[in-house]
DNA sequence: TGGGGTCCT
DNA sequence: AGGACCC
């Protein structure tokens, strides 16, 4: 049973800007409201409504109104709206789900292949639709059921298209009038409901133009949504706002099959009352670390219902010291604190990087086992056989994403095992240790194999040495998860568009000519310099290496002056922020 | 709690 | 190689 809280009781805390944002640590003194007003982007976030369920409705003609769920192992991972209405939850045990809904139909969903195929189609339709609106719109795939686009380039300054929302499911948050907003349940099971009567007031000039732009963006969103529905049969929910954070939050405000426009001036009160955990990028570990300082400062909410508002009322130094306890944030806790605080007031400067087609950067297959059921090595080897088969299929499937399919092969393979650590068994609820081993992988040779038995054998020859490297001599290995991953796809190592031309046209490049020469002479190639191997590097490998700034300084100094200066002109990639989650999309 | 993914250190 | 985060 969900916990509800009502923000109307607390709405007064949102009204006083001084009080609410006294904590704002903005470096250049920009006020929070300024931060919001200065973001002139129009970002679109798309969520496919209960994606797996829609797949099953299409693939197996399941009646939509019959409650059903998707099961994996002993849990259900998602369910349709009819089942949710009966109290079926995400990541619930099958037993609990049946208790909530005895007539529930559970469909086995451990094999993701059909879902991946639907997802690819949806993304490709979405991408094409965006590019047709304007070729320079940056488009990015998030997960199988999430996508984002930066529509800013398509919104003209003085455009005058009248927007007609008749019959369309469009919700505008921050416009005058009455609103009823239900936030969807988050991963912790916290469910919040916000009912708020919004004050009627008129918009200032800058708000007015923002409002115009976002409404035009929502008009584009509607067209794209219709296109997705017509071409794929899937319904989607969209969020439109001024940055990726707010666009994503917007798409969660009302589901399914809607377009949600969130004006930035409305986002502050919305976020203030939202549980901290619902902020994208603020996960379990972070909230746990922050709990100390929230308690210490005795903020208003009940424990476990910390809101953004609560965090904003904590002195920043306290937040920083809390974050020091997260190992990953150890050396960047000040930056992390700023990033989280910014998010709490709806500010997010992250950019949407176009993914140039969306081909996955890593492919992995995994299988999990109940504790104590996989304790012998030979059984593990047998289980790995199935993973080889699945990985083989995945690798061939991925060629459908690639714009250059002969480069659609990986160069690295990794075996990961999760075991039970007896030392942790008494202390933690999930006393697991995850370890991995990786090596290079001749994906090109693999992809050229025609026979599936040979493909499996090839993967096995690559994976068994990794298994051996674990040195599992003890008989008490208690494996709870095994996975095999491939990465380093060659069709992704190609340079961004603004790179020097010789990266895109290797044959005519100064660089490749130079490397040819040094290789024929006594000088060594970069690859040789880096790891002492004598294998010749392909031009794509070279491009990848230089692009990643991994070139050995001694090699760099040997390059011709014009090449060096051109390399220097390539701007070093701005360091990505840890919670810059939309770059991951 | 599953079967995937992304990015950062 | 490992960890935090996402769906």
Automatic annotation (TrEMBL):
It comes from the Eukaryota. One of its GO terms (biological process) is DNA repair. It holds the Pfam family IMS. One of its GO terms (molecular function) is DNA-directed DNA polymerase activity. Residues 43-283 form the UmuC domain. Keywords: Nucleotidyltransferase, Transferase. The keyword Nucleotidyltransferase applies. The keyword Nucleotidyltransferase applies. Its EC number is 2.7.7.7. Residues 1-32 are annotated as: Disordered. Residues 15-29 have a biased composition (Acidic residues). PROSITE patterns: UMUC. This is DNA polymerase iota.
């Amino acid at each position: 049973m969900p916990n509800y809280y009502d923000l109307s009781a607390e709405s007064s805390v949102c009204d006083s800007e001084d009080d609410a944002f006294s904590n704002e640590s903005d470096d250049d003194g920009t006020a929070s409201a300024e931060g919001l007003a200065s973001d002139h982007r129009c970002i679109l976030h798309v969520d496919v409504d209960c994606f797996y369920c829609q797949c099953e409705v299409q693939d197996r003609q399941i009646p939509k109104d019959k409650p059903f769920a998707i099961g994996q192992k002993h849990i259900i991972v998602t369910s349709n709206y009819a089942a949710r209405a009966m109290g079926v939850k995400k990541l619930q045990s099958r037993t609990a789900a049946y208790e909530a809904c005895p007539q529930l139909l559970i469909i086995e969903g451990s094999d993701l292949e059909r879902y991946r195929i639907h997802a690819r189609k949806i993304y490709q339709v979405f991408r094409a639709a965006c590019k047709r609106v304007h070729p320079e719109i940056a488009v990015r795939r998030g997960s199988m059921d999430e996508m984002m686009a930066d529509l800013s380039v398509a919104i003209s300054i003085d455009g005058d298209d009248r927007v007609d929302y008749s019959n369309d499911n469009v919700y505008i948050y921050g416009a005058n009038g009455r609103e009823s907003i239900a936030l969807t349940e988050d991963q912790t099971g916290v469910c919040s409901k916000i009912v708020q009567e919004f004050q009627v007031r008129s918009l200032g000039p800058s708000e007015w133009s923002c409002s115009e732009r976002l409404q035009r963006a929502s008009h584009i969103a509607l067209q794209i949504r219709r296109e997705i529905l017509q071409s794929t049969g899937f319904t989607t929910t969209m969020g439109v706002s001024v940055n990726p954070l707010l666009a994503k939050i917007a798409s969660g405000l009302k589901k399914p099959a809607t377009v949600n426009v969130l004006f930035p001036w409305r986002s502050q009160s919305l976020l203030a009352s939202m549980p901290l955990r619902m902020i994208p990028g603020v996960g379990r570990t972070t909230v746990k670390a922050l709990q100390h300082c929230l308690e210490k400062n005795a903020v208003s909410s009940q424990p476990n219902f910390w809101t953004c508002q609560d965090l904003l009322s904590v002195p920043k130094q306290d937040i920083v010291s809390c974050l020091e306890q997260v190992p990953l944030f150890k050396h960047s806790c000040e930056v992390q604190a700023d990033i989280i605080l910014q998010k709490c007031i709806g500010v997010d400067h992250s950019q949407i990087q176009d993914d140039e087609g969306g081909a996955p950067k890593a492919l992995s297959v995994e299988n999990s086992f109940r504790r104590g059921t996989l304790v012998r090595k030979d059984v593990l080897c047998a289980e790995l056989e199935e993973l080889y088969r699945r990985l083989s299929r995945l690798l061939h499937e991925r060629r459908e994403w690639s714009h250059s399919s002969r480069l659609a092969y990986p160069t690295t393979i990794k075996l990961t095992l999760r075991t039970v650590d007896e030392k942790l068994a008494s202390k933690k609820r999930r006393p697991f240790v995850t370890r991995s081993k990786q090596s290079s992988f001749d994906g090109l040779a693999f992809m050229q194999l025609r026979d599936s038995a040979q493909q499996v054998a090839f993967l096995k020859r690559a994976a068994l040495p990794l298994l051996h490297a674990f040195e599992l001599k003890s008989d008490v290995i208690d494996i709870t998860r095994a996975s095999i991953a491939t990465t380093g796809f060659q069709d992704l190592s190609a340079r961004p568009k603004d790179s020097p031309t010789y990266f895109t046209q290797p044959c005519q490049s100064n660089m490749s000519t130079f490397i040819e020469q040094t290789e024929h002479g006594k000088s060594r190639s970069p690859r040789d310099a880096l790891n002492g191997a004598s294998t010749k590097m392909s031009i794509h490998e070279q491009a990848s290496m230089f692009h990643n700034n991994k070139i050995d300084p001694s090699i760099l100094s040997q390059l011709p002056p014009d090449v060096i200066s051109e390399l220097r002109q390539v701007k070093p990639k701005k360091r990505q922020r840890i919670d810059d989650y939309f770059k991951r999309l």
